[in-house]
Amino acid sequence: MNKLCLLAIGVLGSAAALGAEPFNGTQPMDCAPTTGHDCLPTEQTCKPLKPEPGKKLNLHIDVEKMSMKTPYRNEAMQIQSFSYNTKSLVLQGTSLELVWSATVHRTTGRLTMAIADREGAYIVFGQCKLSTAAPAPKPAEPTRQ
Q1: Pairing between strand 59-62 and 47-48?
Q2: DSSP state, 69?
Q3: Which of 42, 119, 136, 144 to pair with 22, CA 20 to 30 A apart?
């Protein structure tokens, strides 16, 4: 009985700790890139990424739906795994010929992301905020006639 009580206290304590960290994956996040670098194996240094004028570059991350929407794809990319380290939510996935990994600091929302393919890698830094988008409306119940 004592072991069961200790287990319950431990589970509740870890849930409360995650609840105090707003960027723990329980709510969707919108992340704005602040800087980025294009890295090639043939170059000694990475080049700064230049944003496209007039294009919103925000990412939308929804851990509950296991998806990440980027401005460069029509379809959302699947989050294949997520976990926690001492300070961050860690996300990983693959898509066609690339792999990506991201960390979001659980209290500040600071984003670090690496995207790699057979030619090189992009490193992106940014800032996430909790999404203010309203949830999708539920489909209407069919009416009987």
Answers
A1: unpaired
A2: E
A3: 136
Specify whether the CB–CB gap between 83 and 92 falls below 8 A.
no
Walk me through the domains of the chain, giving residue ranges and CATH numbers: 29-130 (2.40.128)
**Whole-angstrom Cα distance, residue 79 to residue 94?**
8
Largest CA distance in the chain: 72
Rounded alpha-carbon distances, angstroms, from residue 78 to 8, 25, 47, 64, 139: 33, 15, 28, 11, 24
Angstrom distances, CA of residue 107 to CA of 7, 33, 43, 62, 73: 26, 18, 35, 17, 29
Alpha helices (H) along 32-118: none
